[in-house]
Amino acid sequence: MRRSLIAALLALLASGCMIGPDYLRPQVETPAAWRLSEQAANDLANTAWWKEFDDPVLDDLVSTALQNNHDLLIATARIEAFTGRYGIVRAELFPQVGAGYEASRQRSTVSGASSPATYNSYQALISASWEIDLWGRIRRLNEAARAQLLGSEDARRAVILSLVGRVAGAYINLRDLDRQLEIARATALSRGESYEVFQERYLGGIISMLELSQNKSQYDEALASIPPIEKAIAQQENGLSV
Predict the structure, then answer these.
(1) Which of the 8 DSSP states describes residue 116?
(2) Alpha-carbon distance 158 to 152, whole Å?
(3) Which of 152, 187, 192, 214 is the most buried (most CB within 10 A)?
(4) Is residue 11 part of a domain?
(5) Does residue 222 contact residue 187 with C-beta atoms inside 8 Å?
């Protein structure tokens, strides 16, 4: 009876010292089919897709952003830190072996001897240690370190994708605004020339004051459309320069 009680207590103690249950991936319902295969999606995400525009200015902007963005630098530093931590924790799962070697040479004078005696001594040192992961502590630390490493890698990748997307999107918007400004200026120039013609026709008594006023309104409207576009361009340029 006493032995059974002791065995039960030992079993209870062992179960209480175990660190956490094994991780079980939860069941998540996913669509039966995707528009892109997993390999195609990974290839698309890892491709320098902005180079498809064949625009040296965009290439320079993306390169500069990737080199100087603080969020990306922080994410990269975290990966390096977690990589080192994962390597240290994982190493604890395996036996640790060390070896060393020492050599020395000594001279001593013996009473009555004609010359000093020389002695050589050699010593080899070997050490080995292995922490048995009885309660799963090292295994759990290894799993946690690996999860942190993978999480930091995903975070860095997300920062890169987001950063490149923002830079490319801002640059494309800037190019579109440049085109809008070009059209707005051309329209204002055309309306200005038309207004001059209408003025001459009004002075010649060919058209009425109402027609001249309507043409002038169109010219003023064309001129008024330019400053908002110029302001938007300045904002986009400032955003790209940050």
Answers:
(1) -
(2) 10
(3) 152
(4) no
(5) yes
The number of angstroms, rounded, from the C-alpha of 10 to the middle of its chain's C-alpha atoms is: 48
Across 138-152, average pLDDT: 54
- The Cα 190–Cα 198 span in angstroms is 12
| 208 within domain boundaries | yes
How many separate domains does the chain show? 1
Residue 212, Cβ density class (10 Å: 0-12 exposed, 13-18 middle, ≥19 buried): middle
Task: With respect to residue 235, please indicate whether it lies within any of the assigned structural domains.
Answer: yes
Helix, coil or strand: residue 237: helix
Residue with tokens 């050599």: 103
pTM strictly above 0.70: no
H helices of the chain, where? 2-17, 38-46, 56-68, 70-91, 137-203, 209-224, 226-241
